[in-house]
Design brief:
heterodimer; A: 484 residues; alpha/beta; FAD/NAD(P)-binding domain; Polyamine Oxidase, Chain A, domain 2; 2 domains; seven-stranded mixed sheet; 18 strands; globular; B: 87 residues; mainly alpha; Non-ribosomal Peptide Synthetase Peptidyl Carrier Protein, Chain A; 4 helices
Amino acid sequence: MNTRTHYDVAIIGAGMSGLAAGIRLAHFGKKVCIFERHNVVGGLNSFYSSAGRKFDVGLHAMTNYVRPGVKGTPLGKLLRQLRIEREEFALCEQKQSRIAFGPCGEVSMRFTNDFAVFESEVAARFPAQIDGFRRLVKLVRAYDDVSLEAKADSARAVVRQHVTDQLLEDMLFCPVMFYGSATERDMEFGQFVIMFKALFLEGFARPLEGVRLILRILTEKYRDAGGERRMKCGVQRIAEKAGRATALVLDNGQEITADHVLSSIGAPETEWLLHLGRGGGDEEAVPHSHVGRLSFVETITVLNRQPAALGWGSDTIVFFNDSPSFRYERPTMQVDSRSGVICIPNNFDFGPGNMLPEGIFRVTCLADYDLWANLDEENYLADKARWFAAVQRSARRFLPAVDDAALTQATVATDMFTPRTITKYTGHFGGAIYGSPAKHRQGRTALANVFLCGTDQGFLGIVGAMLSGISMANYHILRPGHQP
Amino acid sequence: MTKDECKQAVLAIIADIAPDEDLGHVKPDVRLRDQLQLDSMDFLDIVMELRKRHGIEVPEKDYLQLASLDSCANYLTPKFNELAGKS
């Protein structure tokens, strides 16, 4: 039991960014404690058990994968900064992924961790666009995406200078947006660059054991460095005086003081803790202007055989859209099943003799938080069942055909998360997995000793989340003034 | 401490910061940055590890003294010895 009441640094949230920041700070001798409301670590990339079965949430694939020997990439920086050896993550590469557009995926482009494959697919499907596409790729490669002072150019506008076919433009934006964009319809070019590199120029991988292994390594490193962690121990409010945080009041009423506070819970969520600290009441509305509008549902189907036995053995991830244009925006219904992301985690190359014990088929689609948040239990369950069927049916159009009876016979369990689940377990307002559209690159807040890391600082993906924690710990606490 | 021992101490730090680098053929008179993939984040980690492991402070104006193994040895060996003398 940790009983100390003062720390050099208090971190709110034991997700990827909070843990990574904690490792850095503890390694360099700071007294650190992470406060986590939930009973497991991971935040938006976590896990749970249900009926004796282990489920991952969040992570489809670790993006930013590069092979050993490739230097100067986010993955390499992350491993060095956290003193993690590459082998510890035991990353296995994807087989192949696809972007499939059209009512039944008529236009399909494959990509793998070898960028030449994607480039040749673009050349084959869009011969008139390939020169422009190559110019765009050159621009992306040269772009300084980790600068904390990036300009906010429209990604759509920049991409259109090089790619003039609407279909190709939408096919490029679909994966990039689904895997990290908190803004509807368009995004900052800097964010586009981060995601384009993470998905296409680098690639997908995961450990056989999934997100649990990554989290176990992070928590072990953190503990070995002397970091403390309090679980089921959320921060209820932040007290302030003269522009500085003076205390964190925990859910159990205890007060903790700290020289610095790193909050990984999101910008509006941190603002809310300050609001409560000033005596603001629960009845007052959350400042809605900065709460992200994009939330998701995900269906999970557990199969009693490897997906390959159903003919689903090639695709790791499929980004799909059935409509003439791709609309990444808050749906007007509970779920927009026209587009989404399929993940079949069995289809990583785990090496000879290694496989996941059961088949998994996951589908993620955009959802409207408000239309899920206020349902009574009976309607909530009924709507979940209805949308589960609709989402799965929509996604199956983009995979080799399997008849309904065969899929039903192979299915041994199903589960589904909704925007309501996300808010319940992560505390993110609006079920907004990618947080607020307003990012805070420098991580500053209204208080001089409170800093943001994670989703709302604006580095994307799980590697981005960890780098965010590292960067903010370095920049604000370990060596103030140095750009990461 | 000799200059050679000092170089070994610096190499031990680099080996932990950048385990993916081959340190078997580092030339002492060539800038580390020119023979290894070390960026500014890595150099600052070298400075922080010197403080953590050996209690040696390197002020920012002296970072350039850490450019090569030879310059590290010239700059750090007296600091190591000064600390050893105190204890």
